Request: fold
Amino acid sequence: MVKPLIAHQINARHRQRARLADPVVWLSIFLLGVLALCALIALLGLVPHDPYELNVSNRFQPPSWEHWLGTDNLGRDTFSRIVYGSRVALYISLVGVGSAMCLGLLIGTIAGYGPRWLDNAILFVLDSARTFPTILLAMIIVTISGPSINTIVAIVIVSTLSGYVRLVRTQTLSLKNRVFIQAERSLGAGPIRIVSQHVIPNILSPLLIIACMDIPTVITLEAGLSFLGLGIRPPTASWGTTLQDGYAFIRNTPWLLVAASLPLISATLGFTFLGEALRDWLDPNLVNK
Amino acid sequence: MMTIFLLVCTINFIPGDPAAAIMGPRATPELRAMIEARLGLDKPLLQQYFHFLANTLQGDLGTDIRSERPITAIIFENLPYTLILIVLSMFWSVTLGLFLGIVAAVHRNSTADKIIGILSAATISTPSFVVALFALLLFSVNYNLLPAIGAGEPGNIRDQLLHLILPAFALGLSWVGYIARLLRSSLIEVLRENFIRTARSYGLPAWKVHYVYALKIAILPVVSILGVGIGTMISGAVFVEIVFARPGLGSMIYESVVTRNYPVLLGGVLTTTVLFVLTTLAADLTNAALDPRIRNEL
Reply:
């Protein structure tokens, strides 16, 4: 006999089917797939032109078969530079958000599980860092340690960390007093076992959702800082530096702006949609709300 | 209280050796010592901190090391430009965003709702400086419709307003989508609540239910987001002011970063954080005024 499904299981199945039919999910997978492909091509160096090769007689070219997105003010192939830029964007978002997530997990569990005074101290420090607008915080950090890719990763960590810590902390606090954790504790499990076996697996999915939704902000931050000349330094190819060139030579060629902003917008869109899809998938409680 | 936390942080952010940065690598040790003494950097950190705190509370942020002018004067010169830009951007984006949000929520799942949904997703994912660049490209470089550079002649209000259109457009655009989306979801939620059904069953006209009763509650999350959003707006203003070469707090801070002008940077950051804290407070108070349920929590 077929076991009857209870209501929420039916809902879950229904949702799962609806999700795969949702064009937004496919769009995000497509956009991110293109981004990953670009980064891979850049890693393997399979671009049609060397992104650093200067050819001044050939500058400000409109798109053609030879140069798919035209050339910039120094005659470099824009398409190749954009493809190389995707590597920077992905590196910063994955490394930056990844390490912020790990740090947040660590500090958050300490805050949630540790003594009360430590919790208060951690919250105090994070709150005061959060009151600065992100760009200002970024500018201060750049002023102190100079522009470089590692500085951007540091900025990403500082500006996103408090969100993760808060999330992990609240989740840990609410889990701490649940019956199954208390049962585990009465069986003699130490805090390390409880945190690693029960708390972390329970926190991971909301953490991933937040991380995914943070990535667009991070990509924009990198492009913005590089645009201001405070992030990736020329001649390294990044979307922000290409935008900067586009701004400087706006009267000569509009192609640089178009070429750099398209991947920027599609990457942010892709990660936003992916974050929303993940949220619907991993956190059914949020959907029902 | 918050502001004092901030001050602690700001002062701690003063990096190791500003004197070397001001004088350049060829400065002699004597010159450096002189600059350090003038900036009060030779004193211990805690003393510097209290000195700064005391001066700030008296409204003295020190003098600019380059132009020798008091920093408060420079800030008050730049502040109005940024404030008017932010107020104007917020005004148009909130107006349009609220309108679109109401339309989307009231006609849920209609074609209009879907179009608004796509538009908001698109505007949210486009960073303000990209919008600014394209606005500059389209309206000023290609068609020469609107002025692009600067803030207009002082005293000539029409000219100044014309110079505000593009920056305000660029700064506000992503907020339109954001507010529309937020209002849509909160309005849909509110329209499901019991008191709305009661209002409907009393036979009140639909517009009154939607725009007076439901909107009053549904707008709360928008108001609190706006308070926090000032911070994002200031970040956006940095870019927009640079792209359009406008004077303002954002371009002032940017310049102080590029020229390593620490006192100005400190003053600018302090001003923006104070602004930020004040607007968050204002948003909380407005929420309390709008929703009696929150008043008890404050």
In short: Chain A touches chain B through 37 residues (CB under 8 Å). The first helix of chain A runs from residue 7 to 21.
